[in-house]
Amino acid sequence: MAARMRQEALARAGSLLLLLLLWEVAARLVGNPRLLPGILAVLGELVREIQSGELQYHLGITLLRVACAFALAMLAGVALGTALGRSPRLDRWLDAWVLLLLNIPALVVAALLYIWLGLTEAAAILAVALNKLPTVVVTMREGARALDPAYAELARAYHLSHARTLRHVVVPQLAPYTLAAARTGLSLIWKIVLVVELIGRSDGVGFRIGLFFQLFDIAGILAYTLAFAAVVQLIEWTLLQPLERRVNRWR
Amino acid sequence: MRTILAGLEFVVATGSVTAIMGPSGCGKTTLLGILAGLDTDFVGERHIALRPDGRAARIGFVFQEPRLLPWRRLRDNLRLVLPEGANPAVVDPLLAEVGLAEAAELWPRQLSLGMARRGALARALAIDPDLLLLDEPFVSLDTATAAGMHALLLRLLARRAGLTVLFATHDPAEAALLADRVLLLGGSPARLRADITLPAPREARDPVKAGAALRAALAEAGPIPPSPTASAR
Fold it and tell me: For residue B189, which of A237, A251, B3, B86 is within the disulfide window of CB 3.0 to 4.6 Å?
């Protein structure tokens, strides 16, 4: 078991190293550091941004927005999705709305909210949350539909209270779906939040990358991408994967 | 809508053990569901005597498949059904009683079918029931395991004098071993085809002779028309 895990970790690290190697080779082949800077140039930029405190500041703000939008979308999405999965009537009424929201481009939602609510923090967070919401709803609806009636019958046979039924019978069945929704939702949020920041905020990673874009500063863009990717990996390893193991430990 | 049971009327005595027999699909599970209060889609009345303290009777139900929550450890499966505020330690002696003391910390998928069945039985007993309903509790066990379960149930019953039991089975030998009385259902909709009282006490019966006698009595009730849903269950 431990040996297999070590092998897996090695493979992961190896694939990452390979990617960096390909990057460096490509940079040398291109031979133009303004078009494709090498690893060292980007790391240098990264260090400069950290030393000036810019990176921590913008990354921190973006992460805060991600956290708020994520919490909002998960809370609303789990509640709504579960309700839709349990009530076919409600689902008939709201299904078209969910589908519509699912297909509206992120940029449209962001632009509309910025116009309606002004270039505010609330508009930014709401825009990100609204983009993520329908995917959470759809996943949770599947989960609620898949609830096993046999266990509901068991809960009734033993007169379990609503609180106990929810905690011991319903939530464990929904947990894998909630986790899947969190996963896909998080990866979606990373993609959207920068766009929302780019068009309507004067801080955050998206704003910073917009600035680099105007200056054609590819090293800056890649430096922030690197930092961003590192944070995403960190969340995956320290939060999502342990949580997933815990939820699935009975299998 | 199809009528599954019709014209069914019977009274079972407190502390008695009644076997409900009949072809599969005839409505044994439906009858138990009605008695348990799980199935309310019926016309008729069901009365269950109150407890001596005047409160509603507690009903323990053992489903045909053990139906332990797979995401809770065995011990937690038992604790879950205890009334709010009950001492959670009461489940440990019960687990020991059904021979699962060592398995308390296991997940249900780590249990064999026989163990899971005993776990489900212990769970039903955890609420200190007045009425115990068992839906084919020994089906698809190998002979030795089933025999062990029979002995276990007899031991459990011997220690709980006031406990009223109804169990569904299609095995006359099992009914002859465990029950005081056999209700035979049959037909479509199912009606009461026979009501057989077995010689008391259970412990004094010779299993082989009692089984043969019950088979003869069941045959005397006449051939049972095949149930149209026998394959559709």
Answer: B3
Instruction: Report d(CA B208, CA B213) in Å as an integer.
Output: 9
Q: Which of A150, A156, A164 sits opposite B67 (nearest CB)?
A: A150
The DSSP bridge pattern shows strands B181-186 and B191-197 to be antiparallel
| Residue B24 one-letter amino acid | S
A160 assigned to some structural domain: yes
Residue A34 phi, psi dihedral angles, 5° rounding: -75, -30
B 40-79: CB under 8 A from A: 59, 61, 63, 65, 67, 69-72
Half-sphere exposure of B203 (CA within 13 A, CB side): 4
A158:B72 CB<8 A: no
Whether B137 and B149 have beta carbons less than 8 Å apart is answered as yes
User: What's chain B's length in residues?
Assistant: 233
CATH number at residue A237: 1.10.3720.10
Inside any domain, residue A29 = no
- Name the minimum distance, in Å, from the CA of B229 to any CA of chain A: 21
Residue A93 burial by CB count (10 A; 0-12/13-18/19+): exposed, middle or buried?
Answer: exposed
Choose the closest CB to A168 out of B65, B69, B84.
B69
Task: Specify the pLDDT at position A1.
Answer: 62
Which residues of chain B neighbour A172 with C-beta distances below 8 Å?
Answer: 69, 71-72
Model confidence pLDDT, tens digit, residues B112-145: 999 999 999 999 999 999 999 999 988 888 888 8
Tens of pLDDT, residue by residue over B80-106, are 999 888 899 999 999 999 999 999 999
ipTM of the complex model: 0.86
CATH topology of domain B17-220: Rossmann fold (3.40.50)
Domain span at residue A207 reads 36-247
Q: How many Cα atoms sit within 13 Å of B179 on the Cβ side?
A: 29
Considering only CB atoms, which chain A residues are within 8 Å of B65?
Answer: 150
Which sign does the torsion angle of CA A197, A198, A203, A205 carry? positive
Q: Which two tokens stand for residue B95?
A: 């687990």
Q: What's the total number of domains in chain A?
A: 1
Cβ separation B109–A153 shorter than 8 A: no
B9-32 pLDDT tens trace? 888 999 999 999 988 888 889 999
